Structures
1.
Amino acid sequence: MASLLPFVPVPALIGFLVLSLMPVALSRTVVIALGVGAAVLPAILFAPVAVSCLEGGCVAGAAVPILSIDVGVFVAQIAMSLDPLSMVTGGTVALVAALVLIYSGAYMASEPLPDLRRYFALMNLFLAGMLAVVFAADVILLFLGWETIGLCSFMLIAFYTKLPKAVSAGRKALITTRVADAFLLAGLMMLFLSAGTTRLDGMLAAVPAMDPWRLAPIAGLIALGALGKSAQFPFHTWLPSAMAGPTPVSALLHSATMVAAGVILLARLAPLFAAAPEISAMVAMLGILTAAAGALIALIQTDVKKLLAFSTMSQIGFMVLALGLGAPAVALAHFAIHAAFKSLLFLSAGVMSHASGGSTAIEALRGARYRQPWAFWSFAIGAASLAGLPVITAGWYSKEAVLAAVWSSGPCGVPLWLLAATAAMLTGAYAFRVVFVAGSQSADLAAPPWGGAAVMVPLGVLTFVAVVGGLSVGALIGFTGGAPEHIPLLPTLLGAAAPILGVVLARQLVRHPRELERVAHRLRHVRAFRIEILYYYYFVRRFRTIATVLGNADGTEAAAQAAALRRESIDAPGLAADDPLGRAFGGEAAQPDFIARATDGQTPVVRLVSGDPVGRILIVVARVFVGSFVARFSPDQIDRGWMGFAGSFGHAWEQARRLQTGRVRDHSLWIALGCAALLLYAWGTSWR
Amino acid sequence: MTGSDLIGMMILAAGLFAIGVFGVLARRGIMFQLIALEVALSGPALGFVAAGAYHADPQGQGMFILVLTLAAAEVAVGLALFLRIRRTAGSDDSDIISGMKG
């Protein structure tokens, strides 16, 4: 039955073509039936493939060829792989997509008919692209699917085209991932040039013979591309704003499947990264950074969808961390479990926010436990799995596997493990903050009637997976070729205690909301990435104070000016009073002793040391130094230089925008010049 | 076909392409720009046929068929855009669509 594999994405593609291109008016029921049916069929088609795989049909490296294009120099093969990795990821994607589309048949039913048709067409196209990514055994199919899901992500985030916020969020996601995709394309092309084949297994077989100076940039570029799609640290900004799309879109694309595409790619190319240890270390660092920062930011969110977005970032950070440490099987197990419980969280949050009037603020969910108990309890089970409550939830088993892989990863293992365990504790805190708020009493308990099998079935299945799936984690890891790590009892116990601590923390935070607000306020004002502010506070201001205290004696012109400005309550630096020594000596100025009289009108530092000959020499040297060197860097000069530098960007922009005339023929001119330059470059580099 | 014939053909092809590109850059009427694009495409097509004849390889003619298909598709899209621009902007001046101006 393995030959069925290439047909798995076909129903979704046909669904897209029928819904988007067929010039026939379809009724609402037909659109929903077509859209949902086209998404359920891949899961049904996939079942026999999975069965034949479990019976021993799939080994690492097995592939089903689809077609090959002979271009003389090489053969471009398009194939789908039939290895454990694609079985695990493909099964997860097909199952979650089928369930989410069943749910959205009910969730989106009240949209206008053209929008509904557009929604289902795009979701089906996305599913086809995503299945192409997970099954691809060659870079051509992989990249086609990769670009398709990026495009679908853009169009689904900007689904509500009337909302400027949604459109700009979609644009942001598209541009960020396009930048990352350019890195990926460059990396794949360089890999192709080195390996001479488009098949992934052929490329990986060529890796050991490759020059390390070629390998490192290839691995780095591919890693950047994958991290961009997975919303990891330098590219993370697009994911939270992507929540402007409908909730089922967030559940399928921006939590379970699309953002995990980077993880899948990194896992598939794991031998390449194993051969480039410095790139793997960078990937692991970015992963743990995103995991910890995402958890911290999720803690202070006030919107449940934003909170879940940051938690997705953080959980994918865990997977990327495991990948960077060379444990792809563990990352894939966490991917499968995460896809189940995160889509469960999104779907049940959608039900709860529907009951609270469509608002996704956490406060609006208050009382959801009494309004919609089954949605609340499935959310609570999802949150428990996200937090990784020990023994009873699936999330614990997969996260524990990640933590174990971190612990036994060499000399950096223990500090990394501490950071990861802290992130796991914060995960418990932010996940249960929502649960505690939603579980509390509220005055408004009237729920609009909504539910039915289309909502209950997906929630039920996903809840089942989120609890029982834990039993399969060990099997999953073994199936995808990893060996479970055995670590001492103490870190296991500590890892189990982290989520419980997190739940306690969440309880405290919900009881004392003001504390959280204070932390949130502080975190919002950390401007760690504003270079000019850091520069100003840590460099300019200190330098100014020192320079002026040294240079401006009391009674000189500059000091008088500064004093005058102070009197008009303008902050002017450089008064002797700014000097801590000067303040200490200020009280004694009333009883002048002989030193004070001798050095009348000098700065306190001068007064302090001018009593003896050595001190006098020091002062003379300091004065000469100040006069010849420090004065050149007087504060105004620095400020003027800095402001001029900043202002020059404005002028540069004024000049640069003239280049963009918007005329077709000028665009053509630039394209022609660029092509000519590329041709010249190619000629110059290939000339012998 | 001798080597000097091939060089002559290549010069002719480059000339055709240059004329076409100049037409796209210098003209403002969309219709004329489309015609100039066709002229530009005929340059490489001639190059393919000439190189195929020189090497006695039918792939050159195959590529010519590909160029023809490409040109047909390009004209179809171009004419559709032309009609659309005529309808919305009311003119066939390509400088009028400059919404991307910085």
2.
Amino acid sequence: MILRCMKHDSKHKIVGSSVPRVDAFDKVSGRAKYAADYNAKGQLYGMVCYASHPHAKILNIDTGKAAKLPGVRAVLTHEDIPGEKSFGSVIPHQMALCSDKVRYSGDVVAIVAAESIEVAEQAIELIDVDYRQLDVVSDPKVALKDGAILIHDENNLCAYHKVRRGNIDEGFEKSDVILERDYSTSKIEHSYIEPEAVLAEPGENGGITITGSVQNLYSIRRAVARVLGLSLNRVRIIQATLGGSFGGKDETMSALCCRAGLLALATGKPVKMVNTREMSMRESYKRHSYQIHYKVGSTKCGILQAIESEIYADAGAYAAMSPFVTWRSAVHATGPYSIPNVKTDVYAAYTNNCYTGAMRGFGSPQICFAIESLIDELAEELNLDPLELRLKNILKDNSITATGQGLKHKVSLKEVLDNVTEKMGFVDKWKQNREQKRDTAFKRGIGISCSYRGISLGAEGTDAAGVIISIQTDGSVILSTGLIEMGQGAATTISMIVSEKLGITPDRIRFLSADTSRSPDSGPTVASRTTFMAGNAALRGCHELLERIKPVAAELLRCPEQDLLFENNSVYAPNKTSEGDRKIPFSELADKCFQKGISLFAHGWYKSPPTTWNEENGQGDAYFTYVYGANLAEVEVDCITGNVRVLKFISSHDPGQIVNLSGALGQVYGGVIMGIGYAMLENYAESEGNPLVANFDEYLLPTACDIPEIETTLIHNPDELGPLGAKSLGEPACEIAAPAIANAVFNATGMRIRHLPLTLERVKLGKELVRIDSRGSVKARGG
Amino acid sequence: METILNTNVEIKVGFKLNGLLYEKSIPANWTLLQLLRDGLGYYGTKCGCEIGECGACTVLLNGQAINSCLVLAPQIEGAEIWTIEGVADSINSLHPVQRIFIEYDAVHCGFCTPGMIMSTIALLLENSSPDENTIKTALAGNLCRCTGYVQIIEAVKKLSGIITEKDLEKFRYSE
């Protein structure tokens, strides 16, 4: 763990330093309560009946035998749904319980509540469902062909986005070198270590209270209210301590909350539902697999003229976040480069595979892998080194992006690239590696990658958030927001921003977990938007409070308001009052304000700066600001076995202003290692709509033994829009690991691998092996 | 009339958990993980995969780190078990392993943390001065999706050679 050139900004007292996480005590002592740790007296246990086929018409569901099993309290099908049968934030067609047909193997046709899990499981076995099997569509390109079997009522096109800039034909005409390449990426399971869980309790007023492992409480509440036929104020969703999410506990949790809610209302009893890992793997949505075609044109000396791309995303059975995920892909498809002529087409297609949605990166890891591999391939063709080609084309201050947006902030791409390449002597090392003898068993390679990333939701939709700040009469503070802590450290960063502004120490601040009946709807905790949005909202709340309490403090200290300093749980006016440095404890000030009838409660609300988007040509100011990052990977390839070992990783990012230094580093480390899993291990493989992996014995994650030395350099580049200059980091840290590794493998072996993950067989044999029938039997794909 | 599916063949087991003696009648088909969580309310031990891959359910069984999802509860007759709830002597005095995890920001979502801490203690019981590779190997059975392991490994490295026998003695198993 090495950290370089961290400039701690002395302007701030707390922001920019390392502060222990505010929730760490509960987590190291075993006190933190995760969703599965909640129980209610007399609770029942819910269980689901999964589809027997990935695509089939439901002819009949017979629940008679199951309902008669002693200990069973309810068996429900779509017929028992009081509200709408389906939900969905973008397209409301995801079935809480399937009615006419099943569309993927994780679809649910019936649910059971019973006195024990064992009885519930036995009841599920007794449910008879008659199906008429339908042909399965498992390839998104095939799904979009004329005459393809339909997954939903209309055609299989889930989403389409385009970007048009300049004149693509002229761009290729001006090019001396044109390259066309195909890339593909695998489907990725979020692999939060905590499987999904909920406890649904019938509430007063005919409502329902659901405590669960939820990431986006408000979209989940909308789904539950819709399916249960309740008004929003009767559905209360409470977030339990969340055991990881990475974008994953949204629609999956909507479905689980709807089902537990249905059972709780039907039985009048609390119902607990906990997914096993196998259920989670089967049912929960994944990161999209992409098939990507690029055509790039450049002058001889390496000035990019045109990029044309055609990108297909596997949306699986339901839309979920696919329309937004693929939109982000469209915006970022040409990478962090100035390109005068762009033609980008991104399609998401319905298939009978597991549906796909938000996962850390949100449409960028796929793109980053492809475009950053492509740039290296082009450099090779042009006889340039990968750094040189990048530096000739990267976005700079005032550059225009592919969507026609002028970059008004300080663009730090060159700086991050310099940070990862200079110390290593990248170019020399890269050249040396190419001289390695052909018959060497272990070959070294080095590769780089870079990216730009629009922060927050951008033109996807309305972007606003609120933070409630409530000062108590003892000077301690309660924070409440609809944006959540899920392990990324939001509770600590937001507490630190409030701490900075009010001059109270983080230990005096309590960040409540979100509760839809108490916290303001702040949209989803996604898109690396929490520090930015909640941070800005918190600043506004602090400002409002200070406006109210400052006059009281000034009166107590007999000094002008502008001389007041809030610091270390007290307020004083250094050398400005007749009483010298007399400090008033913040607790005393808070109590005084309360006695005077001054409100110590504020709701800071922040709406993001405007963005624009023209659907017709895919032009607009897609995001209000961007962050920049670069990676370098050094690998050793075992040419006998195909094993790739990542030896060293250098990661440089521009998060604007760091809030919590150790938390920021943690985001980079976690992101890089998740990226290494994406590059080398992970693949949620499916065959004709059936998953081939069920648990962590087959779906492989990086372990402590797989991690390289990671060196991190974070740039201090405060953005005028960010709270105290902060932007974002969580997703950028993850998206560019894979291409750096693939480029390093090429540098070592001369073999370009265009498909993730870089398995032993792809590195050794240059082709993929797929499992047939049972464990242990494989064949080469395509021959 | 059918009866409720009877999985409740009970068996009596005696064991020591976090320093206290227990004697419980438990369903014979329970795992140690079920006994801890559902039987005794020790929810600090987490359930992540139930096939011994993720390590979230790691506890100490006679001084060794084991996946409690892979041990049948009746097997613990006479055994000594430590879970995360027993690591700190009191709410006011966290164990050095817990403190170092906080200090090094080795805790993100926290779901793997109890297992990580138990594996760390088991490692230190065996070797109080482990080097980096030894630490990595000892923690390789505990999956973490948030941290990328870096801060966890750094935290344990910091304790290497510093941890005292006094900090470990209560976990030591003597037949």
